[in-house]
Specification:
- There is one protein chain.
- The protein has about 90 residues and is mainly beta.
- It has one domain.
- The chain starts with 5 loop residues before the first strand and ends in a 16-residue tail after the last strand.
């Protein structure tokens, strides 16, 4: 990724988050931990990879088959996640 990762605090819960530049130019708030994941078009989770792509996948699989590492969007883990919903 060419863009710098911006560190901030979530204005809703106060936890540290990163803002990752997505391909479209907007910034996506994510939890700072990199998570290995297994890509799957029918995956039950959303990940943001280090290039800013949003992909679906699973957190579990065979270790030798790990597809990528990425971040979990913060709106999935924030205790105030309802505030992230667009109206």
């Amino acid at each position: 990724m060419d863009e710098e990762i911006i560190r901030k605090k979530c204005r809703n819960c106060g936890r540290e988050i990163f803002l990752i530049q997505a391909r479209g130019g907007r910034r996506i708030p994510v939890d700072p931990a990199l998570i290995p994941f297994w890509w799957s078009p029918m995956g039950s989770e959303i990940f943001v990879n280090q290039d800013g792509d949003t992909v679906t996948g699973e957190r579990s699989g065979r270790p030798e088959n790990v597809t990528d590492v990425g971040y979990i969007p913060h709106w999935k883990t924030c205790p105030h996640e309802a505030r992230f919903r667009r109206r």
